[in-house]
Task: structure prediction
Amino acid sequence: MFEFGIATLILIVTILVGLPIAFSIGVATIVYMLMTNPANILVIPIRMFSGINSFTLMALPLFMFAAEIMVRTGISSKLFDFVRMTAIGKKRGGLAYVNILASTIFGSISGAALSDIAGLGRIEIDAMEEDGYDKNFSCAITAASSIESPLIPPSNIAILYAGTMSLSVGAVLYAGFIPGLILAGTQMLYVLLNAKRLNLPKHAKTYTREEKRAIRISGWIAMGMPLIILIGITGGFFTPTEAAAMAVLYALIVGIFVFKNLTVKMVVDSLWNAAVTTANLFLITSISAVFAWAIGLQNIPQQLAAFMTGISSNRYIILLIINIILLIVGMWMETSAAVLLFAPILAPIAVAMGVSPIHFAVIMIVNLTIGLITPPVGVVLYATSSVGRIKFEDLVKSILPFLALSFIALFIITMFPQVSLFLPSLLGLGQ
Result:
């Protein structure tokens, strides 16, 4: 345990001084191996390769490529208009509801909170400011609603978690659906209860019949991608990787033949961005696999489980401790890296306490995504303040009510397993 403590300290320090996550994990891993069994260093290349030698993980670059194409063809603005045209967009605070719903829907395409901010953030904030909303409130609700993205299927983080922990991809994907809706629901409830107090405006924009028809068609076409993926995986027509390939095909067909705005340059740029993101992710994945293997040889997860069960035999006390750990990790570490590094350590502890591995997957993802909007470091807060051009401290003040609601949602998700397990169980995907 002493060696593990030293390695953890090195990991924290290297991250704080700005070393890339992959290198921080690598340095901590090598130091840990030198202190425990230096001969194991010779196995690093083999373990790195085995860490990414997964058919499931092949889906990630394809999903990223498909999302890049859909964003570049303007799908984000079409989705926003699609939701804004509905009856809910005309209520007091209508654009706040639209912001939440659009982010929830867009999450099924982008699968990442930062992608939501990049793809929808500017559109949402500008539209709300145009309608007379307070700028700080607009940025706060944009940041808060983005954390639904990693939960609404198909989610890149869910696929990564399933691949890392050898769980059913379909089960983890569907397990996040209701928790994602709960997060969105708490935010919409806040808008409903505070619309008059905050003097939120009503949206008065009208559309011609032709505009409505065009927006509806574009909106339903955008929704086609996640529907094809989910129906294909659930019905057993596709594996996750085949579903990702179908998503790319669908995005290309829509961009070329429907929206007719996809150029060769856009495809090349999408390929490049997807390749860079995949390379970064797979580097972290491979090095994290070595670290997980190394600590496994020393039975560190079992020792940590024994230590935590020594504190309390109550599973909910243990889950509370794990929640606090993950929230802190989520503030400082990129979500994918946190999943790869901490899932192999914490998941066995939770499972040993009788927690379903699928339920714990959702708990971990929710914690890490809430960490993205938790000061002082939440990376989504910095991204939103940059996109919205407001001071970071002003955004922090405005997001506090939404952060409190996220903690309430986290409590519900943690304490009531069926919130996460209902859909996988209903669809026969296992628990």
Q: What stands out?
A: The first helix runs from residue 2 to 16. The two ends are 32 Å apart (CA to CA).
